[in-house]
């Protein structure tokens, strides 16, 4: 036997001994670790640390602590018992875990640390220390904690000189996320980019920029090595009409396009209008004599309170439709399970009363409840049509006397105005209650998310003659659409609050 063969034999004996479970003769402990581990805020994570070659750690001393601070234990195990951790924030959260599914645990030298409910403060370095009466060893594991925030929320405000102020915000991130603006894959540089940290350490980001004409701008927010969340805003501004003036069909179409450009523009103006009005109103507070009962709108929620002074109890026209049932102000689809999922077409549109040809009028529509969920497909708005086109395939638009806000399951992140071109309004979530504010005299129609007290969007419309509330519960949603009725107040009070009948839970 050569010397080399002898060494091989010796090694084999040690290995076999260790595999068969007999205690191998090892002079000291050698600790192995995984250098970095990533975890999401709130998750459970295991920081791997084990003895190499494997030996039982049951009778050893094992200690986990932050950084190099031996005296702030997170997990302390000695003489086969656990001691209370010195770091109180880890009490009840730290225990031994398994480095992988095949691990035999403490018996085979796996001394990994398992942490439940990972917090942002857990981010950092951890030391795994193992000691026997023959010696000790330690290793360091870095824990990098991340939190994924909300989908970005974008808003659009029209400024002078063809400029649009686009803003984008997102919160709930750790560490600070990166925010990127782009248009057709080209990066845009923001005018402002601000970060804020809340009390729990989560970061929010807010950015805005000014753009002139654009088709689609995207704002994406994400961690450098994680996936990003994105929101887009699209404006479909039509081409300028042909200069040539004639009575041909072609120029007619050009004129329509021009009118629609105006609508798109004014939708944005509408949003600004409220902000402007708010500024104006607060600075001229004393001089206002105009309407005693109306509140001075300072912001969106006060503009909504002002709208509330013009509450109308709208009733629904009775229609004979095989697709709808109408009862007590509730509109529902007769087929709850629609084969292709929720859908909204002209077939289920209904007019309300009274009609309006002057003044300010406000009404609210409930679009779901906790029990049946939120409706996915609906229209809410006004129409000047005397007869509704109950036909599939008709697309009612501002050019034929329909102005409404619509929701469809195909576009989860936005609501739409049925203008031509369509305007997509980014929303965080579908509203549960929509308030419709018609100012006939100034030819404005505004939609509010009543629960958030936020303006969804406004549009200018060239109403003529009488316009009627328009509703459409669509088909295939479980939740009904309900026109909310209020008990009439004697006079409007200072708060603009009214007694309101709460929407009844729909009988299933
Ligand atoms: C972890 O978080 C859950 C949910 O917040 C909580 O119910 C549980 O008690 C927490 N566990 C520990 C050990 O803190
Ligand atoms: C753009 O909008 C943001 C709010 O989202 C505002 O803080 C900023 O001042 C606006 N910029 C301009 C130039 O109006």
From TrEMBL:
GO terms for cellular component: external side of plasma membrane. Residues 497-508 have a biased composition (Polar residues). Residues 488-508 are annotated as: Disordered. GO terms for molecular function: signaling receptor binding. The chain crosses the membrane at residues 253-274. Residues 294-490 form the B30.2/SPRY domain. This is Butyrophilin subfamily 1 member A1-like.
